[in-house]
Amino acid sequence: MKVSKFGGSSLADGHQLQCVFDIIKADDTRKVIVVSAPGKRFKDDTKVTDLLLTYAKATIEDTDATDIIETIKDRYHAIGNHFDLPAYELADIDEQIDHLARKHYRSFDYLFAAFAAHGEYLNAQLIAKVFTHLGVPARFVDPKEIGLRVDDNARSATFDTKSYNTIAELDLSTSERLIVPGFFGYTENGDIATFSRGGSDITGAIMARGLSADLYENFTDVSAIYAVNPSIIENPAAIKQMTYDEMRELSYAGFAVFHDEAIIPAIQGGIRINIKNTNDPEAPGTFIVPPTEVQQTRPVTGIANSNRFSALYLHRYLLNKEVGFTLRILEILKKHNISYEHMPSGIDDLTIIFDKTLLTQEQVDGMLEDIAATIKPDTLKWLPSYGIIMVVGEGMRNRIGALTDIVTPLKEHGISLQMVNQGASEISIMLGIQPDLAERAVKAIYDNIFKMV
Ligand code: ASP
């Protein structure tokens, strides 16, 4: 049995859904289908999830939401009409969209979460209706029905692993395909809470593990995961297979094809993942598998970069001798409810790297003020934008010269680095870099390493 997940671009309109239908129909073992909300149909289009967030904001601010509601309904209608779905089936979806604004929510965060989750919630219902209408019986499965429980973090929830037991009870013996909305679960109080953005991948992985699937297929809009972002290098090498850990590090550092948290249920359950293209389903795609299954052909599997970071640089003499110093800094972070990503240090220096998408200006100001007042550093600098490049490959374990292959091309191109972190992970080297130099650096490193093979 396979769990097949389809992303937003694969479900953006009726034409795309027809491709999805053909893929499902062609293989009876594609039993559980996890779906995203309808995504972008063209470059400047808006995802239904973002339309719903605008609707949520209008509801909170009590401003006129008529236009946005119509736009959301139109997206679902366009899909339904493509398949001549009877009008009453769509009326039911319209009603749920209207009803969203009338419900009571525990907080604004839960309100945003519930609105956003309806992108998937309604799409899964619609897809079950369309498939049944086209002659492949399908049933909508609410995550509530299978006890998909998450914690109270309304918009960036963590999955409760106890739910695997209830998910495992899902009856797979009927002839129906089971359509599960991605991206959200229910808290203990019964509220909807979503994973972070792109989180339908997580639901797919949870379902695959809970049901001990033979394969987790993740359908998207590319025929493989590439060794580097194709907008930086034309026709980069496609990755045929990689390990779970490689994927986790690459997706963390910018490979948007697969959510970095989605790898964890797959690792725990030993579930193989296959990233495939909805518009080219015969292409083998990329397999993400346990390390024992991978034959290493390259020293480096992929190079990712992301500029979504900020950094704090702190210098004070004799830092190395001070007991409890890091603890005091961490207490300040805790006070302001800030989590950090990395903390490389020297004798008298410390850099703390943050994911800036998780920070507010108020938090940053409060933290800097407290650090200046209590730690009294000789130098304290805030770098609002900080780039990270991650060079990843199982082939780098114990490989002599891995760093030379990275640093030599940078030297040749006159590109300087702000930080190098090797050793924390055996399969990656992390580089800190000025964001405007990151793409040039990635290109130089890629050209050097990939021309060696
Ligand atoms: N629809 C959600 C988002 O846009 C989740 C997903 O597509 O995976 O982030």
From TrEMBL:
One of its GO terms (biological process) is homoserine biosynthetic process. Keywords: Amino-acid biosynthesis, ATP-binding, Diaminopimelate biosynthesis, Kinase, Lysine biosynthesis, Nucleotide-binding, Transferase. SUPFAM superfamilies: ACT-like, Carbamate kinase-like. Its EC number is 2.7.2.4. GO terms for cellular component: cytosol. Residues 391-453 form the ACT domain. ATP binds at T220, D221, Y226. GO terms for molecular function: aspartate kinase activity; ATP binding. Pathway: Amino-acid biosynthesis; L-threonine biosynthesis; L-threonine from L-aspartate: step 1/5; Amino-acid biosynthesis; L-lysine biosynthesis via DAP pathway; (S)-tetrahydrodipicolinate from L-aspartate: step 1/4; Amino-acid biosynthesis; L-methionine biosynthesis via de novo pathway; L-homoserine from L-aspartate: step 1/3. Signal peptide: none annotated. Pfam families: AA_kinase, ACT_9. It catalyses: L-aspartate + ATP = 4-phospho-L-aspartate + ADP. InterPro entries: AceGlu_kinase-like_sf (IPR036393), ACT-like_dom_sf (IPR045865), ACT_Aspartokinase (IPR054352), ACT_dom (IPR002912), AKIII_YclM_N (IPR035804), Asp/Glu/Uridylate_kinase (IPR001048), Asp_kin_monofn (IPR005260), Asp_kinase (IPR001341). Catalyzes the phosphorylation of the beta-carboxyl group of aspartic acid with ATP to yield 4-phospho-L-aspartate, which is involved in the branched biosynthetic pathway leading to the biosynthesis of amino acids threonine, isoleucine and methionine. PANTHER family: ASPARTATE KINASE, ASPARTOKINASE 3. Belongs to the aspartokinase family. This is Aspartokinase. It comes from Leuconostoc carnosum (strain JB16).
